[in-house]
Specification:
The protein has 285 residues and is mainly alpha-helical. 65% of the residues lie in helices and 4% in strands. The strands form two sheets. Strands 1-2 form a two-stranded antiparallel sheet. It has a two-stranded antiparallel ribbon with strand order 3-4. Strand 1 (36-38) and strand 2 form a beta hairpin. The radius of gyration is 20 Å and the shape is globular.
């Protein structure tokens, strides 16, 4: 099969669609999972970020990251009848940055230690950014501080504890561990379906994570996330929409069906593409 070391725009778009539909589907399922309170510790499934993390480590990190953020926005917000305007931009940008950084770190997807480290780093970056934004909202008095029983009445401690809880629970159980298993197992098996050569020393992404360009883009994205959330909390949502059927179980079912349909179409296109390439190779042989 004629595989390429660089992904074309159509291949990147396919990764985007896969990440969007699969992660969107996963976020809908998290709506159905109840949370559990053990003392001051709340155990809840924040997200199944291992899906875009896996795609980012095997394919193009930016396409997978943008796809995941778009999938959460479309399926977990708009499809459920709610849209918070500027307030949605903060989560969109922080998820994109976290997944992108994790995907850039991994040079060899077969190295489980690197995959594990990259996964938890990506989750930590995303959670820390959200934590900082929440603290700034209270510090700039655009949102009231809600104390949690059993914790010191300090926004730094409360938000820091919530951030650490999400990293240790959702970050390890539903991000790092699944990615550690899936990335090495899928390596070399799904890339040819898109006509892409598996990532190795010859095809690894040029440059590192912390190049001047990447740092500038990450800082700009984080600053935009802070600004958007502060404006939204201050009453400048621009577009704040909530339907009468928001939160209805029927909307979740419809969203799951749509996400499954998009995933099936994307999978069908990938299989068709792989079949055409295999047929062309057989004829040439």
């Amino acid at each position: 099969m004629d595989v390429k070391s660089r992904m074309t725009q159509s291949q990147k778009m396919m990764v985007f669609v896969l990440s969007m539909s699969l992660y969107g589907l996963a976020t809908l399922f998290t709506e159905l999972i109840p949370s559990f309170q053990i003392g001051i510790v709340e155990l809840s499934v924040e997200y199944f970020l291992f899906i875009p993390l896996t795609l980012a480590m095997l394919f193009d990190p930016l396409s997978a990251a943008l796809g995941a953020a778009t999938g959460e926005l479309v399926f977990s917000e708009i499809m459920l009848g709610q849209f918070g305007g500027l307030g949605e931009l903060e989560k969109f940008l922080t998820v994109t940055i976290g997944v992108y950084i994790a995907g850039r770190i991994v040079k060899d997807p077969r190295n489980r230690r690197v995959v594990a480290a990259a996964s938890i780093i990506g989750v930590t970056v995303q959670q820390l950014m959200g934590c900082v934004v929440d603290i700034l909202k209270v510090q700039f008095a655009v949102e009231d501080f809600e104390a949690v029983a059993g914790l010191p009445e300090s926004v730094f401690f409360t938000e820091g504890f919530a951030c650490l809880n999400d990293i240790l629970f959702s970050g390890i159980l539903f991000c790092m561990l699944p990615a550690m298993y899936l990335v090495p197992r899928l390596y070399g098996k799904i890339e040819p379906l898109l006509g892409v050569k598996p990532r190795d020393k010859e095809t690894q992404l040029e440059g590192g994570v912390f190049t001047p360009k990447n740092i500038a883009l990450i800082l700009a994205g984080f600053a935009a996330a802070i600004g958007a959330e502060l404006l939204a909390s201050g009453g400048y949502e621009l577009i704040d929409w909530e339907a009468d059927w928001a939160g209805n179980s029927t909307s979740i079912i419809v969203g799951i069906i749509v996400a499954l349909a998009v995933t099936a179409v994307a999978a069908g296109l990938i299989r068709s593409r792989a079949g055409r390439k295999a047929s062309a190779e057989y004829r040439n042989f």
